[in-house]
Specification:
This protein is an alpha+beta fold. It folds into 3 domains: about 5-120, Acyl-CoA dehydrogenase/oxidase, N-terminal domain (Butyryl-Coa Dehydrogenase, subunit A, domain 1, Orthogonal Bundle); about 125-230, Butyryl-CoA Dehydrogenase, subunit A, domain 2, CATH 2.40.110; about 235-380, Butyryl-CoA Dehydrogenase, subunit A, domain 3 (Up-down Bundle). About 50% of the residues lie in helices and about 15% in strands. The strands form 2 sheets. Strands 1, 2, 3, 4, 5, 6 and 7 form a 7-stranded mixed sheet that branches. The chain has a two-stranded antiparallel sheet with strand order 8-9.
Length: about 375
């Protein structure tokens, strides 16, 4: 890992070994094929097989270990996954933070017995259906509804931009009670009658993260499929906080990747009789990348400590997601400039990361939305 400030001196040896093992496996299994798959807009089964083998697709245990990952180790896993590709990190984030987490936190013992073990072993995958066309940044305006009818709930509505939607076996769906507008969560098998999935095609970002729009047409689920521990929109947002923590680390892996490509290219490219790396403006861009990365790792590492001690608040995660995602995106744009014409081809990783990061900077809360979350925390006044 790029480590200008020797931050890893604070990491346990087990975490350092874990990250090194993950990097070696991902580079060997995925590294040489990612640009081809991304360019062809192809999602081969091989990706999910490798993620399942790693335990990244649900089990979340270090290689050759039996204890669950720490917050730091989880962050380092997200870092290495997104160093390969943001879409692959997205798949894992949704499985863990947006499917397993709400099932553990809010699901009944019955639902946990039915699905938790299968999810954690990667035998089935899940998706999280909150966003709707009318208000991605305003989930409280959702139009999807549920009503009780006998021993079932009937759910109607549309959800958009659902990561993992095309291949998930279960969905965590959020809807409003038609009688009082209370927001609740439901676990719904995706093969339920009236559950219609439409894959989103021709994306020019996150092409290795299958995404879908979902229509729920009078979908009937047993009463026990409501998540009894979920109460209001805050429950859904608590899931997003878990996913945002993974993004804080993940985008730094993408930043390292574009930095390494930029540094390598600048040392090999000669202009006006000297290497590109000797030019002042190029060195400024490289120095800014290292600076952004270093500050991002310090921020994320301390956030992992706060989370492990139960001392973090959602606004701290917002600040880290906001700053790190934007830092990675700006760095990818700088890297594209350094590589010039080669920066728009898949001969390097730069354009792929740059286009992916345009989405990562937007989803799970835009830069502006997180700015207002932080602003409300500072002033006590809502600007929404």
């Amino acid at each position: 890992m790029l480590d200008f400030y020797n931050i890893k001196c604070f990491f346990p040896d087990t975490s350092i070994r874990f990250q090194a093992e993950i990097r070696e496996i991902l580079d060997k299994k995925l590294g040489n094929q990612i640009n081809t798959w991304w360019g062809e807009d192809e999602f081969p089964d091989e990706i999910t097989t490798i993620l399942t083998t790693l335990g990244a697709f649900g089990e979340l245990k270090p290689i050759n270990h039996h204890s669950p990952l720490s917050y730091l180790d989880y962050g380092l896993l997200m870092y290495e996954l997104e160093r390969i590709d943001s879409g692959i990190r997205s798949i894992v984030s949704v499985q863990n933070a947006l499917t397993i987490y709400p099932l553990k936190q809010f699901g009944s013992s019955h639902l946990q017995k039915l699905y938790l073990d299968k999810l954690q072993k990667g035998h089935i995958t899940g998706c999280f259906a909150l966003t709707e066309d009318g208000g991605g940044s305003d989930p409280n305006s959702m139009k999807t509804t549920y009503s009780k009818k006998g021993d079932q709930y009937i759910i109607d509505g549309r959800k958009s931009w659902v990561t993992n939607g095309p291949f998930a076996q279960i969905a965590i769906v959020w809807a409003k009670d038609v009688t009082n507008n209370t927001i609740s969560g439901f676990l719904i098998p995706t093969d339920a009658k009236g559950f219609n999935i439409s894959p989103i095609e021709n994306k020019m970002s996150l092409r290795l993260s299958p995404t879908a729009n979902i229509e729920l047409d009078q979908v009937a689920v047993p009463l026990i499929h409501k998540l009894p521990g979920a109460s209001g929109l805050s429950s859904a947002l608590s899931c997003l906080a878990q996913a945002r923590y993974g993004i804080c680390w993940g985008v730094l892996g993408a930043l390292e990747s574009v930095y390494e490509d930029s540094l390598s290219f600048s040392k090999s490219r000669s202009t006006f009789g000297t290497n590109l790396s000797s030019k002042q403006l190029v060195q400024e861009k490289l120095a800014n990348m290292v600076s952004r990365h270093t500050k991002g790792v310090l921020l994320s590492y301390h956030l992992s400590v706060l989370l492990s001690q139960g001392m973090s608040v959602a606004q701290q995660i917002s600040l880290a997601k906001r700053d790190n995602a934007r830092s990675a995106l700006v760095s990818a744009r700088d890297a594209r400039e350094i590589l010039a014409a080669q920066g728009i081809t898949l001969s390097s990783n730069v354009i792929r990361h740059m286009l992916n990061l345009e989405t990562v900077d937007t989803y799970e809360g835009t830069y502006d939305i997180h700015t207002l979350i932080i602003g409300k925390s500072i002033t006590g006044e809502s600007a929404f």
